[in-house]
Amino acid sequence: MSPGDEQGYTDYPETGHTRTRLPDPDPYGGAPRRPHRTSSRSLVTVVGVVVLLIAAIAFANRGDDAAGGTTTTKGSQPRAAATAASGAKPVDTKTGTIPSGFPHTEQGAQSAAANYAVALGSAEMFTTSWRHQIVDTVYAPDAAAAKQSAMDSAYSNDKFLANIGLNKDGSAPKGQTFVSRVIPVGTKVTASGAETTTVEVWYTSLFGLSGEASRNPVTESWYTTTYELKWVNGDWKITDFQQKDGPVPVGRDQTASSADDMTKAVEEYGGFTYAR
Q1: Which of 28, 31, 169, 219 could form a disulfide with 243 if both were Cys (CB 3.0 to 4.6 A apart)?
Q2: Exposure pattern of 250-268 as b/e (b: 16+ CB <10 Å)?
Q3: At 177, which helix (H) or strand (E)?
Q4: CA-based nearest residue to 60, from 6, 102, 11, 98
Q5: Residue 75 burial (CB < 10 Å; 0-12/13-18/19+)?
């Protein structure tokens, strides 16, 4: 999870960073996902919702270039090496299924942002119990309560769920598999303070339903979400976020896989649980 312009749906009022087009006002105000080339533009809307929730999250963290933080050149232009492997040991602790206990460094903030984007863009966000756990884990306590209510309203909207092809309880129709994944491509710190940090996460997302009867096939979208993070109780937590489209690479002339092959891939290839 994880968020494009979808078919003409009513925009939800902005309450978050990202802007997603949901069937009704979006408590988060996230950005819609990129519409599909076919009739799956409604799917794009759904993707947008997920992305919105995942997108724009600013990271708060203390700068530390030596620990894998962002280095800059003359015009404060981040180098490509900003997200290169640092050799630092990744976190080995989790809160539920989400990595936690990130270092109080720039690299730690980037890792937190990337991993939180993955969690917020996951299919689990469409299940109430899992959604509550994810929001409570990735958001700062004072922000989690407000986000929880807004997200519950958005994710439980019958029209929204129908537009993306899901049942009223957020489950996929019989014989179909719901896919919602965010795959981080890179991160960079754009602002850093002693207790707060802003991190941008560039990622691609997969969203849709795989299966022969699916009217919303799995599509790919590209976004950059800005996360504002704050150091709270020994870990980085999200306080706010903003999302925008792209950068989008030129697509290659590849034949789309069959619904059966896509379903098998989703079932056989697990998503990453740790990034950076």
Answers
A1: 31
A2: eeeeeeeeebeebbeebee
A3: strand 177-192
A4: 102
A5: exposed
Tokens 């917020």 -> residue: 120
Task: Provide the number of structural domains found in the chain.
Answer: 1
User: Model confidence over 154-203: pLDDT tens digits?
Assistant: 898 999 999 999 999 999 999 899 999 999 999 999 999 989 999 999 99
Read off the CATH number of the domain in which 132 is found.
3.10.450.230
| Domain span at 54 | 41-71+82-268
User: Tokens for 148?
Assistant: 């929880």
Is 0.85 surpassed by the pTM of this model?
no
Q: How many CB atoms lie within 10 A of CB 100?
A: 18
Q: Is residue 112 one of the residues assigned to a domain?
A: yes
25: in domain = no
Residues 6 or more apart in contact with residue 50 via CB below 8 angstroms = 1, 2, 3, 20, 33, 120, 121, 125, 180, 205, 207
Dist. CA 125–CA 130, nearest whole Å: 6
In a domain, 168, yes or no: yes
- pLDDT per position as a tens digit, 196-219: 999 999 999 999 998 877 888 899
Q: Which residue has the tokens 């794009």?
A: 44
Q: What is the pLDDT of residues 94-124, one digit of tens each?
A: 999 899 999 999 999 999 999 999 999 999 9
